[in-house]
Amino acid sequence: TPLVYGPTAVMAPEGFNPLDAGQIKGMLTGMKGAAEYEHLLGRKDFATKAAGALSTS
Q: Does position 56 have pLDDT exceeding 90, yes or no?
């Protein structure tokens, strides 16, 4: 079963070794990754709405 990892941005570095080893198939990193995934799905949910607040900080 393919596994996709969705860590918070500060936890993302821990996911690169399993990603490089092929143990996980993809990684959506932090709020930005969640917003990008929503964009791919054609949806505007929480991550897309919250991303605007992150870009101004």
A: no
